[in-house]
Amino acid sequence: MTLPGQLNPTPRILLGPGPSNAHPRVLRAMGTPLIGHLDPEFIGIMEDVKSMLQQVFRTQNSLTFPVSATGSAGMEAVLTNLLEPGDDALICVNGVFGNRMADIVERLGATLHRVDAPWGEMIEPTQVEEALAKCKPKVVAIVHAETSTGVLQPLEKVGQLATNAGALFLVDAVTSLGGTDVRVDDWGIDAIYSGTQKCLSAPPGLAPVSFSEHAVEKIRSRKTKVQSWYLDTTMLINYWSGEKRAYHHTAPITSVYALYEALRIVLEEGLENRFERHLRNHELLKNGLEELGFKFLVREGYRLPMLNSVVLPEGFDDAEIRKILLEKYNIEVGAGLGEFAGKVWRIGLMGYGSNENHVNCLLSALRQVL
Amino acid sequence: MTLPGQLNPTPRILLGPGPSNAHPRVLRAMGTPLIGHLDPEFIGIMEDVKSMLQQVFRTQNSLTFPVSATGSAGMEAVLTNLLEPGDDALICVNGVFGNRMADIVERLGATLHRVDAPWGEMIEPTQVEEALAKCKPKVVAIVHAETSTGVLQPLEKVGQLATNAGALFLVDAVTSLGGTDVRVDDWGIDAIYSGTQKCLSAPPGLAPVSFSEHAVEKIRSRKTKVQSWYLDTTMLINYWSGEKRAYHHTAPITSVYALYEALRIVLEEGLENRFERHLRNHELLKNGLEELGFKFLVREGYRLPMLNSVVLPEGFDDAEIRKILLEKYNIEVGAGLGEFAGKVWRIGLMGYGSNENHVNCLLSALRQVL
User: Fold this and answer.
1) Which of A250, B6, B157, B233, by CA, is between 20 and 30 Å from A149?
2) Which residues of A29-49 are buried (b: 16+ CB within 10 A; e: fewer)?
3) A173-207: per-residue pLDDT in tens?
């Protein structure tokens, strides 16, 4: 038996749908020796992470913390805590991640109501309004940044409709957080989840979440236990808040270190500066890609600055050119999903990865290949 | 608003119930720049991790991989995949982690049957035999290394009883894997889970699991969907095996890097050498502690070499002395849980952390304090 050799992956420029390149300071932070998950110094780090997450989510919610798993577990955490079997849930679906929410709702034994829009288009508030006239859901859930299509979903009107209907408003901000504005309190969001590997520029491994007071009330008044022990906030809250810091599961220390440093970097730059940088590099990429014959899938005004979905030019060999980009230029771009497979690319410019050099590298490589 | 300062936790000697100190090579591996979760090079790393996990688990099971969350999620993954609502489950409980399994079984809507033993004692095979005469469970689950009490549970007889009764045999090896022998195939184990932050000496964040062919058959013949989308092996298998490598969730790249390096270190040392080292340092610690008036909680022959549960000497101030150890000597030891709070310590010598210097540091510090 021979052992695998030393870990030595080729350095890549990650311009896919995530993970993006982690910031070098975040990578360094991950080499920090471990301390215990009940060490007073670790409790201090947790408090700082919570406080920085509140700033990035723009919320006062005290139940704000990172779930100990990747973004999809954040989705499951929000839904499993806020839904009980038999509850009605209205899920907006215009891509992979809306579909995933619908799948989870059914696994929880809740009753699924859907609002569908074609992939690549936003959900219209009127659609939600019509759906709310026909059902009385406990939650309305929607994806802010549909990573499968590149659509940026406006949230305010849908949030008002949900609140007026007496429903909790749930938002997927996996790809948007740290790259475009996410205003939890101003937009009436009751529960939100994100991931660390997109615009926060840390490795995948944690799912920042935040729950409003209304959401916490709903959780406290549940008649049944949360179906997932691991994601049960009624227990997690005793570790992430309060005096006792009761052991629930062993926190992923190093991932928390990474998030700590990633959030410091976000706040050092400032949210507005960061959003502006994402827009600027999106524009730069857009101009270059359009010159090369790519067309944007999503209509103007609803495009994600950090995830550019572009329709490939006529006669363009999707798989072959992605292969050349990866093997010759060490650049990863994302393939299209579902009906967009072979026809669309998803080009990420996320967090630390949203910079002029990355745009220039990709455009120059494409010019050479084409 | 002032930002928290640079991450700078005090270096600690971690002699609690976990996390243990990560190996320096593992910490270095975590600084490796990210590559994509569908990158052919990452697929290669995943294959190597699977193959090394098979060696450490001593199994040929093809469904062997790390769940993307901590050890407790491994517990939930095994139970949620193998149980459907209404299924009978026989759970052996002699500490915190057996109780946790029982809790999860009830959340899944399965019917719980318990075999209980006092904390600090092993489960007797005759108890399981008697329980199996009264119910016909789909699974029998037991904890190999009860981290709350320090009991090492012999598995072979219980496994035979489970198999003879037509049940799947499920084992918690969170604390044992990599520190004492775990023979999945020889012992007839159908599903097993572990954690990375104990005797594998990587940070917490992944839960290695393995499922036998019988377990996979049970999963394939489920009548209901797995309740957790995130932990659903029927989908995870398409990412961790096979040609297509279908996207499920974004793998925690850096945690997989850490596990890769940790497993290399385990196999370089050799399993037998590693187990022998854990025993040797356990003996060294035992002799020193007994001289100081500590008594072992668990009777000889059933003690975990990597987690020493000791009853404190008369008049010993638990909290005060743990505080001095942490603040003056930077040594963390674990407190007792439940009825053992204030009366018992749990002293971990796990993986890289099981070495003579750690034993000597703790014993010397205790001699100075007492």
Assistant:
1) B233
2) bbbbbbbbbbbeebeebbebb
3) 999 999 999 999 999 999 999 999 999 999 999 99
In chain B, the residue whose alpha carbon lies closest to the alpha carbon of A224 is B107
B 93-112 residues inside an 8 A Cβ radius of A? 100, 103-104, 106-108
C-beta atoms surrounding A316 within 10 Å = 16
Q: Would you kindly state where each structural domain of chain B is located, as residue ranges?
A: 13-19+271-369, 24-267
- Whether the predicted pLDDT of A1 surpasses 80: no
A341 touches chain B (CB under 8 A): no
Contact assessment for residue A358 and residue A282, using Cβ atoms and an 8 Å cutoff: no
On whether any CB of chain A is under 8 Å from the CB of B28, the answer is yes
* Candidates 2.40.50.140, 3.40.309.10, 3.40.640.10, 3.30.1490.190; CATH matching A24-267: 3.40.640.10
List of residues 6+ apart from A8 with CB closer than 8 A? none
Q: What is the DSSP string of A257-292?
A: HHHHHHHHHHHHH-HHHHHHHHHHHHHHHHHHHHHT
Select from A32, A70, A71 the Cβ nearest to the Cβ of B9. A32
Angle, to 10 degrees, between the axis of helix B213-220 and the axis of helix B233-240?
120
CB-defined contacts A:B, below 8 A: 236
Structure-token pair, residue B318: 């638990």
**Which of the two residues, A25 and B242, has the higher pLDDT score?**
A25
Predicted pLDDT of residue B348: 98
Calculate how close chain A gets to B261, using CA atoms only, in Å: 7
Do B332 and A36 lie within an 8 Å CB cutoff? yes
Residues of chain B where predicted confidence (pLDDT) is lower than 70: 1
Q: ipTM of this predicted complex?
A: 0.98
Contacts of residue A18 in chain B, CB cutoff 8 Å?
250
Burial string for B333-357 (b: 16+ CB within 10 Å, else e) reads: bbbbbeebeeebbbbbbbbbbbbee
Half-sphere exposure of A198 (CA within 13 A, CB side): 29
- Mean pLDDT along residues A17-43: 98
Nearest CA in chain B to A201: B34
* pLDDT for B1: 67
The answer to whether A84 faces chain B, any CB pair under 8 Å, is no
Q: In what order do the strands lie in the sheet with A344-348?
A: A13-15, A331-335, A344-348, A307-311, A295-296
Using alpha carbons only, give the angle B25, B28, B30 rounded to the nearest 5 degrees: 115
Main-chain dihedrals φ then ψ at residue A233, nearest 5 degrees: -65, -20
Question: Which residues on adjacent β-strands are paired with residue B333?
Answer: B15
Task: Output the CATH code of domain B13-19+271-369.
Answer: 3.90.1150.10
Neighboring chain B residues of A254 at a CB cutoff of 8 Å: 22, 30, 203-205, 254-255, 258
